[in-house]
Amino acid sequence: MHIPDGFLDTGTIVGTYVLSAGAVGYGIRKTREELNERQIPVLGVLAAFIFAAQMVNFPIIGGTSGHLLGAALAAVLLGPWASSIIISTVLIIQCLFFQDGGLTALGGNIFNMGVVGSFAAYWIYTALKKLPGRNVEMFRIFAASWASVVLASLAATAELALSGTVPFKIAFVAMMSWHVIIGVGEGIITALAVSFVRRVGFSPAARAEKA
Residue range 61-71: average pLDDT? Predict the structure, then answer.
């Protein structure tokens, strides 16, 4: 899902950089207000885990790639603002040190994966909180994870199309055909990871229940 250099036009580059910078800047402020001292170290742990997960890429036609996103994992445990910071940090490191995603496209990648991915996951997770059933929590996490991947890839598709890089229909088919499948894997991994983290004692579930 990382967009490389040369795939976005100037207007899209500037627009996504502005949106991403604003979201991350506000996210830092909100995270300072929302997280307590016990939760702060989890930011680093999640960032390290997500960094490793995102390094496993699946090639997609048209010059892009797909991978596990991790935004839902962070959003469910720590909220969307903290998640956007974690994903943005991971993407910046990948871009600067591993050339995974272009520098000119960094704003777009942060917006797609860090902002869209995080908030899509959080909103869907909270929207499903009133569903009945014993195993609804696992389903909520799975659905939020799957949607975060699909909607983040949809945002990337729109940016590629707006930039004139590839027609929307072609980009849509290429991106969606992979990411609807990647989203299933992400949903399963995220549900298991959240369940494990909560079992070992870190359970900020009350945060995610706030609408």
Answer: 69
